[in-house]
Amino acid sequence: MPIGNLINRIVGCTLALALLNWIGPALIALEPNTTRAVADFHTGFNIILALLFFPLLKPFARFLVRLLPTRVDAADPSQPVYLDGAARETPSIALAGAAREALRMVDVFEAMLRGALDSLNGGDRKRVTETARMDNVLDRLDTAIKEYLTSLDIDALDDADHQRLSEILAFTTNLEHAGDIVEKSLMSLAAKRIKRGVSFSEISRQEIREMIDRLIGNARAAAAVFMTEGPARGPPAPRRKGGLSRDRNAYYRRILRTGAH
């Protein structure tokens, strides 16, 4: 807003200075009182400037957005980094940006799993809360990617682009669902454990570590396949999600068998 107003004023002042030799005598002829003439000039200047820029308001706004794009808050991981609005005109570039953003979701999911491990083994309530909030980051990134992809011109996509778009949507959707499972199941379990003052047996701790390590490995493998070019490429995330559910259920059964101390 300030930059737009500054540009508006610079253009107006440039025009006014160029026409000052004609504007000045005309104002004095209409209003001999110099104080009143200055006030009239200021009023007329604003009105004429508004009339000149009003028809150009939308293209001027687009120019300002291109000139001064919204800054991404590096401290907020839920803000997309690679979803370039200008790239929408070139589907292959737009899809590549969306895929890179999907990889950021993998990083968040891995951090969430490590936070879940710390929360299940430790007693830090703050760590539990921070890890649970990472699911909101996944939700927002998933929403941003979907909105970006659905804004692309479908007619400009070829068959390969349509396939890639479907893969990205499937991959991010399953990552978001996996984050929900961690937040609603593992983090809920961690919070209850801390609240009740219960600690796991060494056998249970080892099973937790093995489960989390396996899930992290699955997530990395899914990301590698997701970014692989060629006909063998496909969205592996559903298998990883199923693995997460199976690991979680198997873990619960083992906890019931071994007990906690």
Describe, in plain words, how this protein is organized in 3D:
The longest helix has 38 residues, at 159-196. With 261 residues, the chain is mainly α. The protein has helices at residues 2-18, 20-30, 34-53, 57-67, 91-121, 125-150, 159-196, 202-226, 237-258. 24% of the residues are buried.
**CA radius of gyration:** 29 Å
- What portion of residues is helical? over 70%
Order of helices and strands: HHHHHHHHH
Number of contiguous helices: 9
State the gist of this model.
The chain is mainly alpha-helical and 261 residues long. It has 9 helices and no strands.
Give structural attributes.
77% helix; mainly alpha; disordered C terminus; 9 helices; elongated; single chain; 261 residues
Question: Secondary structure elements and their pairing?
Answer:
Elements: H1 2-18, H2 20-30, H3 34-53, H4 57-67, H5 91-121, H6 125-150, H7 159-196, H8 202-226, H9 237-258
Helix pairs in contact: 5-6, 5-7, 5-8, 6-7, 7-9, 8-9
